[in-house]
Specification:
The protein is mainly beta and 185 residues long. The protein has no helices and 18 strands. The termini are far apart.
Length: 185
Amino acid sequence: MKGHDDHVITCLQFSGDLVVSGSDDNTLKVWSAVSGKCLRTLTGHSGGVWCSQMVVATVISGSTDRTLRVWDAESGECVHTLYGHTSTVRCMHLHGNRVVSGSRDTTLRVWDVSTGRCEHVLTGHVAAVRCVQYDGRRVVSGGYDYMVKVWDPETEVCLHTLQGHTNRVYSLQFDGVFVVSGSLD
């Protein structure tokens, strides 16, 4: 599949027969996995798209322009633009009607996707937040400060700081009980 004007960033999502790609050309493209054709281009970001998530017909994207956008994947229209981060949005995790975003500004934000409103801000990392998982009850984040943190998003309290990595944390998996983290160490 060829179509972006700049290199595709690590932002590729699959949902059914659809693939969504994000790029430094400031766009996302919705592709048919069956035909390989670009079905539509989502335009609106003023910076590279560095993370995305798709569930059914909703796409959420995060960008170097410091915003998240909520898109209708079928029409290609931007439903909401989420403002609040002061640096690149680097990661996100969608669960139900909420998305948790992590940024180079060291914060995580909990958003209501249907209203576009920021409900909570989680502060405690001292370097960029690189990965996040959210199960509807707990948020787990990893950052360039070598830390993994477990949060109660409703109270905005960090419940646990998991130390042990000696380099940046780049990936996480969380099943509601166990956390697996990956780092450059």
